[in-house]
Structure formats: C-alpha cells, structure tokens
Amino acid sequence: MKYGESGIKYALRNSMKFYLGTKYPNWMREKEFEDVPLFVSHRTLLKYKKLHPSLTSWSLDSGGFSELTLYNEWRTSPGEYIKAIRRYQDEIGKLDWAAPQDWMCEPFMNEKTGKSVEEHQRLTVENYLELKYRAEDLPIIPVIQGWSLDDYLRCVDMFLKAGIDLEEYETVGIGSVCRRQGTGEAENIVYRLKPLRLHGFGMKTTAVHRFGYLLASSDSMAWSFSGRMRPDPECPKKQCTDCRHYALSWRENILNPKIPNLFNQLVGCQ
Ligand SMILES: [Zn+2]
After folding, report:
1. Which domains does the chain have, with CATH numbers?
2. Quick check: 42 pLDDT over 60?
3. How far is the CA of 224 from the centre of ligand 1 (A)?
C-alpha cells in the first residue's frame, strides 16, 4: 500500500475533502476562505449572539472532546444541540454536516468517565438514533468510535443491529483514531473499514499524509499548534497560533506536500 508523491497529491487533491479547523467563525464569511472548507465547533459558535452567512462550505464539530474532558459527560442535551444545529443551518448556511454527540474512546477518556469502550460506543449509537429521530431533516452524520480494530468493527455492527447500514451513508465519522502512538495502526484500522466513506476527526499532519488517500474527508487544527512551535519568522507576532496566513499556507502544504520524503520518515501522529 505505497503511494508515491504524485499518488499522494492526486489522492489528496481529488478525493479527500479537507476541512481547516478554526476557532474564528468570521473566517466563514471572508473572501480569502471562499474555497477553503472550514471545521467549526459548536462550543465556539454557541458564544455568538449574531451569526453571518458563510461563503464557504463547512462542517460542525459537536465539541465532544472538550465537553467530556471538562465534565466527564455530555451536559448539552440532544434537544439543545438540535436547536443549535438548526440555527447554524438557517443563519450561517452551507453546512455540509454536523457531528453527533459521540463518546470518544481514548483510554484516558474512559478513565475519566468510568465507562467501558463498549458503553461509550452504545451511547454514541444511541445518541445518533435520538438525534436522527428528533431531527431527521438535519445533516447529522453517524460516527464510529473505538480503540482497537475489533472495537471499531463492533461499533459498525452496533449500527447495523440498530437498522443502520453505514455503507449506505455518504459520510461516516471515525473518532479517536489519531490519538495513538503510531499512525501504522490507525492506517490499518481505516483500511479495514473500507468501503465506508470515512471522515477522520482531528487528524495530525503525518496521518493525513500517510492515509489521507483512504479517507473521504478529514479535519485538522494542527496548524495552530504548529504555528506556536514553528512560527513564520517574518510574522510580526511571536507566535502564529491564531494567524490566518499561517493556517492557509499550512493547509496548502498539507494538500501539496513540499517535502514528501520527510513525511515518509516520520512515525506517529504529531
Ligand atoms: Zn503569524
């Protein structure tokens, strides 16, 4: 399963839709981002009383990672979340899809909630069913959660038992896949889940380059971390954590890797 430089470029440019993660919803209405799909969290948007129409397509992160990390549970009710999605769809528009209120399965997250991986998966499936039952018209996607390959396969079965054949869906999110040591295992999991049309949440640069060709779409805010650690020396700010120029050139580089050999040497989600 080796792709040369041109293969990676072809796969990234022509098949995977890449959403640039941002904490700045105003980017959605700016010309500079007209052709840049964005990924914005519900936790960011809910602070805004006034929203504006978007020029670009975008998808909504439910903010589950932050919410579970903060409270060890979902405090936002499905009803509140549905109301918020409807508002974003009406007032901002161009919403490709919204993530459900899923339960991540990183070992530290299960430790925090005191629940098993299987329990997180059950809650994830149940939440999707509830959201879809209560708001069938909204573009909410199913998400599979897990940690080991067997976990993810079990989650696909859980959906099937609930009457949902994920193969029929245009987008299926895959969570927790990039928060592990090596990208090799993550790549194997994603490979084994074909032919699902997967969206990889919170991808790291190395993971996008290694197995982006297997994904229908992905999102990342890794530019912000990178902008803090390796800022543009010509930028008047000391760090590029919040700089749009940095976010855009980082995105360009992820879609057109300038030093592909370097990426082949890197191991791990970094
Ligand atoms: Zn900067």
Report:
1. 5-220 (3.20.20.105), 221-259 (no CATH)
2. yes
3. 10
For range 215-228, the mean pLDDT: 93
Q: How far does the centroid of ligand 1 lie from the alpha carbon of residue 136, in Å?
A: 42
Helix (H) or strand (E) holding 109: helix 107-113
Provide the pLDDT for residue 14: 57
The rounded Å distance from CA 16 to ligand 1 centre is: 27
92 alpha carbon – ligand 1 mean position (Å): 27
Sign of CA dihedral 69, 154, 3, 212: negative
* Rounded distance between C-alpha atoms, residue 12 and residue 267, angstroms: 19
Q: Which residue has the tokens 């939440």?
A: 127
Ligand 1 midpoint to CA 202 (Å): 22
CA of 242 to the centre of ligand 1 (A): 7
Mean pLDDT along residues 136-155: 97
Chain mean pLDDT for the chain? 90
Give the list of residues 6+ apart from residue 2 with CB closer than 8 angstroms, or none.
none
Q: Give the Å distance between the CA of 47 and the centre of ligand 1.
A: 25
CA of 175 relative to ligand 1 center, distance in Å: 30
Give the mean pLDDT of 165-192.
89
What pLDDT score does 264 carry? 41
107-135 average pLDDT score = 97
In the predicted model, is pLDDT for residue 267 greater than 50? no
Q: Which residues contact 103 (CB under 8 A, 6 or more apart)?
A: 64, 68, 74, 109, 113, 115, 120, 121, 123, 124, 127, 145
Give the residue-averaged pLDDT of 121-146.
98
- Helix, strand, or coil (residue 122): helix
- Cα(108) to ligand 1 centroid in Å equals 33
Q: CB within 8 A of 91, min separation 6: which ones?
A: 51, 52, 53
- pLDDT for 45 beyond 60: yes
